[in-house]
């Protein structure tokens, strides 16, 4: 797929097929553009919008690409500049050297000109003088194939879109497309697929022609069959006679075999009697020992149950006392924090009062005396004027306040109505949600205990069922039902709580597997209970139950699953949760009557009550408590909720009607209030003017000022003294609080240590109980198995062994009678010596001989009556028909042989294609490593033709762990840019083209990466030998200068 090249120093080549000049007229954003290119490396830079990418688009259009293939337009006419009627693209191609194309016609330059109008487009090939030489598409295709110019190959022309799609994409499938297309494997694969389709069509045509002569072939087969059948009629008659003799004696021999088998069967059955009896005796002995062990262990477990129940009760009391002490300590600490804040605030007030005393004394010193009589007269006049205006202002304010109160009252009413509407709407939405949930529960009850999440979890459990030792049980609520109706459903659901949503597993390994399933199902908020499924159903003694007539949560629940029942007892403690009807009765049961074994009391209206030691606790009703999930039918709840929704809608309509009435009143009050405010503001301005004059006069009056500061200062000093005394009292209280906090902390610490010591001291008793319980379960399991084995062997002896012996002996006697009768009949047909001379029965059974005889008799009768023609007439007819189709058969056979040869050739080509693909994959890795090695990096390219993916692995020299980066996104920006560039250069090494172009290949690189990439590209381009065109909007001043490097700057776009 790629030819090998050797470069020494600067590449030597003829340059045939390179681009000398590109001229554009009315094309995209260019009115007129002419650009000349060097034979080696060309850089074209410019700002965004200057038309750089249009140059590559023009090259693609000139060499025959369609508009969609450029990814810049859907139709060619869209390339015409706005306001123009045509566009022209002209490309001058160098045509010199040994690889030139028809130099005697075109000369040393070929001009390709493509003209585009609104309705048509045409391509013309011209010679050096501009004379038209060809205009057919075939001529352009021949030129393109001669120079090996494939503008759709991303290694020849890489546009902006292809650069983003292939080079800057982290997708392995995009990289594979780039590699498959760049190495022309895509083109060869498409060609092989096309040939395979044509071969299939040819095979179908030959099959159709052969089907046309198949009726004649069938007629020949029928004639041949008739001839053969007539020949075999006599042979069949002879075979019938022989089969009759064999069949007669086969009955005798068959009975002999049955008699022999029956004797063996009777002997085998009699040998089973002592074996079964021995197993029954050993099982009885084992069962007696197990009964004795079971009785002893059961007594031991009963004793341990009483001990562990008392241990649990004492442990719960210690924990509750510790929690209360800890809460008391937290409350005292909060009170201490509040007292500290109050003391600090009082100290700040004292400091402010002291500053105020100092300011008053300073002002008193600055005051000066003035004319007393003149100032008093002026002050009296101003006071009279201020009083009159103040009286008018007070009257206006009273009126304004009255209106404001009316307005505020109406606004409060409006706010209340809005709150009522919002409350009703929220309540309606909540009820609608509950109705939807109940309807969902009707279709699947499991959703009541976790919604859609629990359904997803159950599906994941089924999908990963092999990961569990035993299938999980859950949710618990789906495995229990209420007894005696739904009356106690709210209290039961509150008592059991979150345990209704729980799943039960048999060990910690299954718990881990369940958590993984929950994570995949996105359902994580549910309890997981680990409980051995092998434990039998618990039997709770009466003395361990609450001694009351009120029901317990366990007594109102039923479950067929013993594991669920055990979890309700061990984890939920449902047997000690008492249910009552109302609050008063609950307090009596929980606190007053002092009933033993009562853990908690729940009321129908949602209250929870319990006592721990001397502390009595009543928890209020939970606002968001979900009830009704255990009800047998949801129809009544749905009807009740729908009735509530109807009433709520009526309340909302009434509230909206009142809201419209109040809105009218509000508008009236606002209009009146605005008028009053305007009048008040006018009077206030007049009042402020007069009051300022009065204040100015009073400031100058300092005669009586000497008395005021002294009295004010004394009052402030007294207030400071009182505040300091109060601070001292608060500090004393704070010291007492600290002592109480220390005492509470010591009490909590002591209770916690007591709880831990008690737990450690009772650990042995709990473990002993668990061990005894496990041993009891194991003994019971062994007893069950032993009883089952004993019953099994007794049934085998009674129902199978003895009846089968009796039945076998009866069958033996019957067979002996059948043998005598069959021998007599066979001797009448022929003597036994004749059958022995023929070689017995050739291994055939009686049924086979009988079936064969019947079949031959039917065939003999059928063949004898079937054919009326003579065998000679049939042979003549056969020869005539055979001559008619023989030539066609030979022709079609030749066709099929040629198609087979083509198929073999195609298979060979496909193998060569696969071998070349494997070699290209190897060469790509080799080239990639060669380019990476220049920077001391190594790498590997994995190409999967089956999955159509290409992944890059890079190992950096500084990586001391010697780990390989299999995702280039794990590299730094510069490392990723350089490895991507090496991948592209490796593909360029494997493809041939007279020129190559890359647009915005460095758009995602930083300055350092761009410098490294540009230097590498320039070195590769100079060594590789093709003409290169690089288009970039970035600065290329860091690119080294040389006679083979040409840089051009596009004009800035017009604004």
Question: Explain this structure to me?
Answer:
- The protein is α/β, with parallel strands linked by helices and 1055 residues long.
- The strands form six sheets. It has a six-stranded antiparallel sheet with strand order 2-1-4-5-6-7. The protein has a five-stranded parallel sheet with strand order 8-19-20-3-21. The protein has a four-stranded mixed sheet with strand order 13-14-15-16, with helices on both faces.
- A hairpin with a 2-residue loop joins strand 15 and strand 16.
- The relative contact order is 0.13.
- The model is unreliable at 1-12 and 702-708 (pLDDT under 50).
- Residues 19-1047 form the RecF/RecN/SMC N-terminal domain.
- Belongs to the SMC family. SMC6 subfamily.
Strand content: 5-15%
Briefly note the structural class of the backbone: alpha/beta
Stretches with pLDDT under 50, minimum 5 residues: 1-12, 702-708
Cα Rg: 53 Å
Q: In one word, what is the shape? A: flat
Q: Tally the helices.
A: 22
Question: How many beta-strand elements?
Answer: 21
Q: What is the helix fraction of residues, given as a range?
A: 55-70%
Q: Estimate the mean pLDDT confidence.
A: 77
Terminus-to-terminus distance: 48 Å
Strand order of the largest sheet: 2-1-4-5-6-7
Task: Sketch the major β-sheet.
Answer: 6 strands, antiparallel
InterPro entries: P-loop_NTPase, RecF/RecN/SMC_N, SMC_hinge_sf
Domain RecF/RecN/SMC N-terminal: 19-1047
Coiled coil: 192-233, 329-434, 638-679, 720-866
Protein name: RecF/RecN/SMC N-terminal domain-containing protein
